Amino acid sequence: MSKSTSRNTTIQDIAKELNVTAATVSRALNNHPRISEATRQAVAEVADRLNYTRNRVASSLRSGKTNVIGVIIPSAKINFFGSVVHGIETMANERGYNVLIYQSNEDTEYEKKGIQAFLSARVDGILASIAKDTRDISHYLDARDKGVPIVFFDRTNDDTSIPYVVVDDYKGGYLATEHLINQGYKRIAHVSGQQHLKIFAERLRGYKAALKAYKLPFEKELVFAGNVSIESGKEAVKHFLSLPEPPDAIFAVEDFTALGVIKELKENKIRIPEQFGVVGFANEEFDEHITPALTSVDQQTVTMGKEAFNLIMDMINKKVVRNVDNKKVILEPLLQPRASSQR
To answer: What are the HTH lacI-type domain coordinates in residue numbering (predicted)?
Structure first.
């Protein structure tokens, strides 16, 4: 029968039951190598029978670790980030870690609040994708200077002192543009994202490189400065259609922008892909469910999450917070051709 008590079971209760020291019980519960398997098993059975619940706060104060990782994402509405978090949580579960998630809503001030919340929770490390409004990352650097390892994923900046996991955005931009060229489109426009974020600058650079490689001219009026939204995709199409010589295809910096592009083209009764080709970036879940299905660049999101977790664990285990080894992981982009660009 289970023992019923009016208070929480302690390590001392387990030790008394087994006639061993509290230190032995503590070592057994923490899988200390000097404790035999038989003792570990006996402690586990008694702990279960007495409904022992470990005091995580006391345990974390003793070990200096909480086994909790904080994750900052720009938006929970974007499936891309949910998929990355899935990869992070898969690895965290395997390693006995819990994950706290904070949504910045693409706002730097919310981002700062998230970091403070994580510091208060004494997380062992922070994984983050920078909000599109964030230009100054000093709040991340301050957290790092307090001894908390930080790893960026997807969105980063040029500060190489923080490790990161990204897709090869330059190559992805090149592949997207090259695909449109190979489908026979002649005037390919680009709806860009905020250029202070490295991923968006690299996609623009890939777009320019593909045009040059195929001897097509780069024209400034064919680049529209968007803000990563459905609305900016619509505005871009209005701009492009007002030109004396409009484009016949658009490579959008990400899929929500591309969705706006498709919506506005339909409003103008322009047939996709016959008259106009569209390619996005991120391979969002909705891509294959809209009409026409959206061609996009897959960023290996689950792998990105797993690699980010591996990087943060490496830093935690080595007790380092600075990227002294210049650690970074760059994943291969994968083009996913669909109806929006295939003539």
So the answer is: 9-63
